[in-house]
Design goal:
Blueprint lengths: L4 E6 L3 H13 L3 E8 L2 H10 L4 E4 L1 H5 L6 E4 L6 H10 L4 E4 L6 H14 L3 E4 L6 H12 L5 E6 L1 E2 L18 H17 L5 E8 L6 E9 L5 E7 L8 E5 L2 E5 L8 E8 L3 E8 L3 H15 L7 H18 L2
Parallel strand pairs: 1-2, 1-4, 2-3, 4-5, 5-6, 7-11, 8-11
Antiparallel strand pairs: 7-12, 9-10, 10-11, 12-13, 13-14, 14-15
Helix pairs in contact: 1-8, 4-5, 5-9, 7-9
């Protein structure tokens, strides 16, 4: 049995260059086999940084290569659904950057393509593979915090360059897609249920016309509540809090890259402690998990059902931000 996935990469986005291609090279069950781009110049530049066996001008050519075992897609948000579905129809398992698609209807298209072809797909939320997230789940499951009452997760940074893809509406820009998908997935993963109410205060940028500044309140059926502020109009902030009846967890940061992250835990019975975890391989762990899906038939750690639930909440948020 083969023990290595030959990866093909569609596009030369920054996340591929900074995080995912190095992760593929680091992963124990992966090989960087091919890169595709619509730009010869970008392809040549990427191939110098990350040598691989094949370089393709055009995404279709890579998908047609029978040696490609799986595909990673870091394309602009508006292209995700189209190319995930094409890859699945070509028999290629897919790891696609968040958000998996532009709305719940598109996620359902991906789900149908996966069902029809029998080929798996997974949304790339690297932090969900992070040892810090695993530890947070462990603490919550242990009962040390008591019943979950409140969660807070913020994600912001100042973005003023209107040429940045995150501020271009036509290709899926906006703070909800770029930042908000993280806290919403965080809340749902820890609560283990879908929100029963979503309240939103948000506004679009006067020049960008994308949602740039959003505050969200979620109510969960269990009684837990969550708030999130995500914005392109505020200073860098990724602070997160999980509060129960008997204690709390705090993460100064969780969603962004970084080799070390801290978990602060305080409980009524155990007092206060600070743990530092090695999070340097979070992207490689994500690649390795998808590799087990391809090689061993494991289930994706981030299911398409989970992605659909996230998309439904994002749809609700964007509907309240107005046009």
């Amino acid at each position: 049995m083969r023990n290595e996935v030959r990866w093909g990469v569609l596009g030369c986005a920054g996340i591929a260059r900074k995080a995912m291609l190095p992760a593929i090279l680091d992963a124990g069950n992966a090989k960087l086999y091919a890169i595709a781009s619509r730009s010869r110049e970008k392809l040549a530049e990427m191939a110098k940084l990350f040598p691989c066996e094949r370089q393709y001008v055009g995404y279709e050519a890579l998908l047609g290569d029978p040696a490609v075992d799986a595909v990673y897609i870091p394309l602009p948000n508006s292209l995700h659904c189209e190319w995930v579905v094409k890859a699945l129809e070509m028999g290629k398992p897919v790891l696609c950057e968040k958000p998996l698609a532009m709305n719940a209807a598109e996620v359902r298209r991906v789900m149908e393509a996966s069902r029809a072809t029998g080929v798996p797909a997974m949304e790339a939320f690297a932090y969900l593979h992070d040892p810090l997230m695993a530890r947070a789940r462990e603490v919550l499951a242990s009962g040390a915090l008591g019943r979950l009452r409140y969660m807070e997760a913020n994600f912001s940074y100042l973005l003023e360059d209107l040429s940045n893809v995150r501020l271009i509406r036509g290709i899926g820009g906006g703070a909800t897609y770029d930042l908000g998908c993280y806290p919403i997935s965080f809340f749902r993963a820890l609560a283990g249920e879908e929100p029963s109410r979503v309240a939103v205060s948000g506004r679009r940028g006067a020049r960008s016309v994308v949602d740039e500044d959003v505050l969200v309140l979620l109510d969960f059926p269990s009684g837990a509540k969550a708030t999130s502020y995500f914005s392109f109009q505020a200073h860098w902030n990724t602070r997160n809090l999980v509060l129960g009846e008997c204690g709390y967890m705090e993460f100064p940061t969780i969603f962004d890259r970084g080799d070390k992250k801290t978990l602060i835990l305080e409980t009524a019975s155990g007092g206060r402690s600070v743990e530092t975890l090695d999070t340097s391989r979070r992207y490689a762990l994500q690649v390795e998990q998808m590799g087990r899906v391809v090689l061993e038939g494991r289930a994706p750690a981030v299911s398409l059902g989970f992605s659909l639930g996230n998309a439904e909440v994002l749809d609700s948020i964007l509907a309240e931000c107005g046009d």
